[in-house]
Amino acid sequence: MQVLLLIAMSMMAPQHTGPRTISGKVSEVITGSKIVVSSKGKSYLVTLREAVCPEERQAGYDMALSFTEDKLYGQFVIVTVDRINDQMVLGEIQYVNNGNISYDLLASGMAFWNEPEAKLTAYRELGKKAKKAKTGIFANGDAIPPWDIAEHNNAERKKIMEEKKKKN
User: Which pLDDT score, from 0 to 100, does residue 57 have?
Assistant: First the structure.
């Protein structure tokens, strides 16, 4: 029993646990899939590798944000780092009892599977099942992946610029 208590206490202390992980406390949830983890006086913006949630002003944003806040805000977590650039991290977040926030988001229909960055193709099935069951952000059928919206916005900007050029 004492061994379990020591293990639990050591997991709660914010610290770097090696070159491929960061452990610390979730200090802010920006979107359902962009989370700030504070560790040893630094803050890291973690973007999930497997799951992408709606961005601000997109359908489902509030729902996905609340889901992640309820699971992670104020919790001690371990981030498995895929890439790190300064204090921006692409990776995965594990929390109490080996929970994985990407898994939970996808299984609950709160996120899209992030195919360009993803490594775990089994997670794709979680997203497909949630979409088919019309769960979470897919309930109304109006959820659009953030990358499609960005592509659409870029195309609109390009169209506007071309129209301005024609007028001049």
Answer: 86
Helices (H), the chain: 2-12, 61-72, 101-107, 122-132, 146-167
Which residue, 15, 18, 65, 19, is CA-closest to 41? 15
pLDDT tens for residues 15-63?
444 458 999 999 999 999 999 999 999 999 999 999 999 999 888 999 9
Domain range enclosing 105: 2-143
CATH label of the domain that carries residue 93: 2.40.50.90
- If you ran DSSP here, which 8-state letter would residue 155 be given? H
User: What is the distance between the alpha carbons of residues 3 and 20, in angstroms, rounded to a whole number?
Assistant: 25
Q: What are phi and psi of 100, to 5 degrees?
A: -125, 120
For CA atoms 36, 41, 42, 48, give the dihedral sign: negative
pTM: 0.76
Residue 15's beta-bridge partner residues?
23
Number of domains in the chain: 1
At residue 163, the pLDDT reads: 64
- How high is the pLDDT of residue 164? 62
